[in-house]
């Protein structure tokens, strides 16, 4: 297991929760200083264990999208049009009405969409029918720069998707 990004937060009722890679966990129990954390989403089997506020084990088996929104990464498409990465997936601009923009997945047949208002994600149906893609950034000279998906955009157990080449890349 590689390093995971996590932070401890207080709930509205004053309890301690932990956010790991965008997923929120509640404390289930503590035995001999070892704390078991369970995902806040019902029927999800993901768990984490910590000792002295350090996550020592993370079973990343979620059956849902992250509960905490991941900030989008704005970039350009192959043809220079606007695109964003949300959760390791590339979406292209579909349409804009006033300040609200609808983004759709770049893959044909995938129905995932995300809505932004002034660059902030306000609604997302991030249920894709394919694995995440590798990041392809385009700079001012339109030269392709390839790299792995940033760690905060991919779940740890999806490292196989990072090694794949993005199909239909320019």
From TrEMBL:
Domain FLYWCH-type: 8-64, 74-130
Keywords: Metal-binding, Zinc, Zinc-finger
Source superkingdom: Eukaryota
Molecular function, one GO term: zinc ion binding
Name of the protein: FLYWCH-type domain-containing protein
């Amino acid at each position: 297991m590689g390093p995971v990004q996590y932070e401890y937060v207080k709930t509205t009722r004053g309890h301690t929760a932990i956010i790991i890679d965008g997923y929120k966990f509640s404390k289930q129990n503590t035995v001999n200083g070892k704390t078991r954390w369970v995902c806040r989403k019902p029927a999800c089997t993901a768990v984490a264990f910590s000792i002295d506020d350090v996550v020592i084990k993370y079973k990343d088996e979620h059956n849902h999208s992250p509960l905490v929104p991941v900030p989008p990464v704005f970039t350009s498409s192959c043809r220079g049009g606007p695109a964003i990465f949300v959760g390791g997936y590339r979406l292209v601009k579909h349409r804009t009405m006033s300040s609200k923009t609808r983004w759709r997945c770049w893959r044909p047949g995938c129905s995932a969409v995300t809505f932004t208002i002034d660059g902030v994600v306000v609604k997302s149906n991030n249920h894709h029918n394919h694995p995440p893609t590798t990041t392809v950034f385009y700079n001012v000279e339109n030269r392709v720069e390839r790299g792995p998906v940033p760690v905060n955009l991919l779940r740890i157990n999806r490292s196989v998707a990072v090694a794949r080449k993005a199909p239909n890349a320019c």
